[in-house]
Amino acid sequence: MFKILALNALILAYTQSVLYLDGIKLRDVQATLQGILLAACFLFISRSKPLKTLSKQRPLPNIFSLYTILTVILQFSVHFTCLIYLVHQAKLRIPESDATNTTKIKLSLEEDEEEHFEPNIVNSTVYIISMALQIATFAINYRGYPYMESLRENTALVYSIIGSSGVVLALTLGAFPELAVQFELIDFPHDFRIVLLQVLFADFFFSFLVDRICLRLCGEGELKEELVAN
Fold first, then answer.
1. In the chain, what are the domain boundaries?
2. Which segments of the chain does DSSP mark as H helices, in order?
3. pLDDT above 80 (res 119)
4. pTM of model > 0.85
């Protein structure tokens, strides 16, 4: 849970602060959908049940263990690299007139509130990848077995992750144009859509890989023999 909270906080902090200076922001309807999907994942994590048998592996002694710190840093490095790369690729495909408006820094709150929001490839890309990164964070960092229900056993969480991933995939592929219009997303060019999907899958793979490598290298302690015997 702490890894999920830390990674989601870092992703949101970057997308909603640093990128905001480049004129990249989310609409209320977009933030609402994102919040609903993430809230469902958090809900079903909290409903996970502990196993009835005591594991031979003891939990990490504190949240500042080497494994936790290392996996959070490395996973965020993967997410950050993919996010920067996709934003750069999106900016290469934005028209010059829109690019000028996108990079304009707002000097006052009133000016920002009065400005009409126009969806473009950069805003839509940031929205898609920020949702995908946070969903991947749940799927990778949910630690069930050997203490709690495994991901397969927590069917509600599995369906929530699959459903959220399906929404992101449908918006990326433009499967439901009316839904994309409702959430103020553009229809991605075919070549960029392929790049976007490749980066999203690569991000999930490498994030999963670094987490399992960190777990393997750092390891976890075992309970003392007398405790296991009891």
1. 2-15+28-44+59-102+110-220
2. 2-13, 28-46, 66-92, 96-102, 109-114, 121-141, 155-173, 177-182, 190-218, 225-229
3. no
4. no
